[in-house]
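Okay, any thoughts on this one?
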Amino acid sequence: MSQDILLESGTNELEIVMFEVASSTFGINVLKVREIINPLPITATPNSHQHVEGVIRLRQEVIPVVDLAKVLALPASNKPENDKLIIAELNQIKVAFHVHTVSRIHRISWQQIEKPSELSTGFENHTSGIVKMEEHLALLLDFEKIIVDINPKAGLNLEEVKALGERERSNKQIIIAEDSATLRKLLEDTLTTAGYGQLRFFENGQLLWDYLEQQQELQTDPIDLIITDIEMPQMDGHHLTKKIKEHSLWGNTPVVIFSSLISEDLYHKGEVVGANAQISKPQITKLIQTLDDLFIKQTN
């Protein structure tokens, strides 16, 4: 993908590649897309997950191919010669998503994206947001969940946290913006196991920001650190971080970005908005060690 389409950090905008599977329209964040190619010969892999067609060789890399029609229980392509492979990178792994057509790139605001209700899409288990376009709706798929469903080892690993050994309980107050209910539960379990039990979760950056503004008025609970995902409806993590760091009261509060989008060439976006640390999912042990280090710095 051309680098010139990448947005300035912290604008609360994103660009999505629109594509179709059967007659349904979906989107994927441009930041996850490395390239879009015509199908290559697929080598079947024995005992693979039912949603994995096999692997392709792209230049010097071997990349698994996930058939989104199977994931979404939709009909196979009726014109396979026109199909495309979206080569994506998330959670520090590359995956080829097999789709039927790719249309264009749209620039939108996160405020145009709503969290799907349980009955709204029919694809709710695989959808992270509903994009309100001028002419139609498009669904943002939860590609992280699709990958974790295929390979649970790609998710957070509680055993890694237990391997850190017995830890002191911390009274540090941590607030977290994460739109995935599954990840909120995993983060709660893993951080509590690591000794960080004073946690408050929000479904998106806007809700966390509203809470901060409320706390400014009430001045009740201290807030020692903030963890945020990047991709969230209403307000993304980069925009949230920028607002926090520019705020007179919260500007010195450490902000840790914990996201599947922390790749080598996108790291600078978090730096620009002032994030104190950026950890790629699913590196939960690194996240905990980073929290330890930041709290040690606070006491020195």
About this structure: Helices lie at 68-71, 143-150, 158-162, 181-193, 205-218, 237-245, 267-272, 284-299. The chain is about 25% helix and 30% strand. The first helix runs from residue 68 to 71.
